Amino acid sequence: xxxxxxxxxxxxxxxxxxxxxxxxxxxxxxxxxxxxxxxxxxxxxxxxxxxxxxxxxxxxxxxxxxxxxxxxxxxxxxxxxxxxxxxxxxxxxxxxxxxxxxxxxxxxxxxxxxxxxxxxxxxxxxxxxxxxxxxxxxxxxxxxxxxxxxxxxxxxxxxxxxxxxxxxxxxxxxxxxxxxxxxxxxxxxxxxxxxxxxxxxxxxxxxxxxxxxxxxxxxxxxxxxxxxxxxxxxxxxxxxxxxxxxxxxxxxxxxxxxxxxxxxxxxxxxxxxxxxxxxxxxxxxxxxxxxxxxxxxxxxxxxxxxxxxxxxxxxxxxxxxxxxxxxxxxxxxxxxxxxxxxxxxxxxxxxxxxxxxxxxxxxxxxxxxxxxxxxxxxxxxxxxxxxxxxxxxxxxxxxxxxxxxxxxxxxxxxxxxxxxxxxxxxxxxxxxxxxxxxxxxxxxxxxxxxxxxxxxxxxxxxxxxxxxxxxxxxxxxxxxxxxxxxxxxxxxxxxxxxxxxxxxxxxxxxxxxxxxxxxxxxxxxxxxxxx
Amino acid sequence: xxxxxxxxxxxxxxxxxxxxxxxxxxxxxxxxxxxxxxxxxxxxxxxxxxxxxxxxxxxxxxxxxxxxxxxxxxxxxxxxxxxxxxxxxxxxxxxxxxxxxxxxxxxxxxxxxxxxxxxxxxxxxxxxxxxxxxxxxxxxxxxxxxxxxxxxxxxx
Lengths: 531, 156
Ligand code: SF4
Known about the structure:
The complex is a heterodimer. Chain A is an alpha/beta fold. Chain A contains 20 helices and 18 strands. Chain A has helices spanning 10-20, 36-43, 55-67, 78-94, 120-126, 136-153, 163-166, 189-192, 196-220, 238-247, 264-272, 286-293, 312-319, 343-353, 383-394, 397-400, 409-425, 468-475, 489-501, 515-525; strands at 6-9, 25-28, 49-51, 72-77, 100-106, 130-131, 157-162, 169-172, 225-226, 232-237, 252-256, 258-260, 276-280, 356-358, 403-408, 432-438, 479-483, 505-511. In chain A, strands 3-2-4-5-7-6-12 form a 7-stranded mixed sheet, sandwiched between helices. Chain A has a 5-stranded parallel sheet with strand order 14-15-16-18-17, sandwiched between helices. Chain B is an alpha/beta fold. Chain B has helices at residues 17-30, 81-84, 111-120, 127-137, 143-154, and strands at residues 5-12, 34-39, 49-57, 70-75, 88-95. A 5-stranded mixed sheet of chain B has the order 2-3-1-4-5. Chains A and B meet through strand 8, helix 10 and helix 13 of A and helix 1, strand 2 and helix 2 of B. Strand 8 (169-172) of chain A pairs antiparallel with strand 2 of chain B, so a sheet runs across the interface. The structure holds iron/sulfur cluster. Iron/sulfur cluster (SF4) binds next to helix 20 of chain A.
């Protein structure tokens, strides 16, 4: 058996679990820390995976797969779940025929994200069961369990991961593997077309299934109780349960694997079995709120531990009831645009001209840091265009004429296109300027492809490439300029100045490949392995 | 008693600290230990500060090394000592480039493996075990230069 023992990251374990669960298609959008799930899955034998332009489309593709009666995994990071939320709430009503698992990776402490939202709130809001592994073995096991639950009750299931689980390597012993179920379409119009008349009963069906799943979770859910102290009891989920076991070896720990719907009966029994009970969870007081609402007597929560990641020392502090100020760790060196990054020239120029920049999500977000410090806003994927338009609409002329939306090529494909459509239709008085920093890849998350690079997930040529310039022209942009930001600086400067001075809708595409992508592609050409 | 060893690596994105954590992870994994390795990457790949944790023993629970808990702290540069010293436990060992003849490295990119050589002097694993792990984790064309770096770090 020991030959089967492997050291795997949580992401690799989810990928292997997905294969062993018999999945027909993996689909997702790259986002740290979830990205490597699909990349690893695609490398496994007979496993098919593809990137979607954004998380909403990824989930829609996944819904199609599951409606066709076979299994699918959809991967994204927490903020991506916001983008996919629209179909999520309704597929929870329709349910699915084949197994459907959404692997969603949260980022407590924001190692590389714009917020630290807690995806468990989506599980409750949408009514989708949620499992939460603590390490790679559980990531592997719970992926398979999630598919089983999904198929047994015909409901999508969220597998909530966190940076620590995704990017930690721990030992995994894999178990047996299932074949991929054959897709086969069976029409079910009233079950899948959510007009109000059909959606009303669907909502009731969903709640009834959730009640059944809660019963199952009480009786046989993945919620082991470790230790037998009668003094201190700790209820914890995911990796925090491991911190808790280490911080308080003598405590009795209830380790929750299925966090929605909570096994409330089992939890209340656990609370009754100890003198003092404390809930330890990262991010929002999700379990805390539910347990207190159900009348569970637990210690009040200390708000300060809602922020950032937990570790053993912080969990010890929680157990000790220590609400004193925590020592701030020394500041490290912040990340920077690579030397030779094509974005450097673009930011230098925009800074010199003195633009107001509504920015977006990608490597170029680093343009906010010294020495550039040229980014006025950064909210969400694609937000640069809408926010720039809003400012252009209401600012006095002199200020309005300075506003430039800056977005990358990958982000443009993800959710910049609809912003351009809005710009055409609801045209601001002094026009608008979008600068697309086109480096030919999704650099920030590790050089993934997108429809504009013309390559598929495995970096092989796609049938066709979506042309950014042709798309902008076809949509009705007045002027589209394509240039090389490093080689054509004067032309770049002139183009920006002209655009700002005119009342046109202008798109300037600053095109030069990411230097890391160039190096990666050279490796692929030489036939070397890329990570 | 269950003894867990905590090794913390600190460097800047792109310096290869994830690789050297993987190499040590390989050594202890091959010996049958429970192992947990935690890292934070993402934005930090663009030259920012980055740390990586390796814990091993009979049974490892949390994957993270908290402040004051590292038995070993391996830093990729002297200027990283100050920012990371707080991870080290009382009596813990600091491993840094000035522990060996760093300017004799033929290839600066092998500094990470040279540091493993310096670390290896304080750990109960044979050179052969380390070398097997180096070879398992790196592509073949880099074996020779990294083996030399390891031995330089080890002072042999
Ligand atoms: S990875 Fe590419 S796009 Fe990102 S900073 Fe480096 S060169 Fe620029």
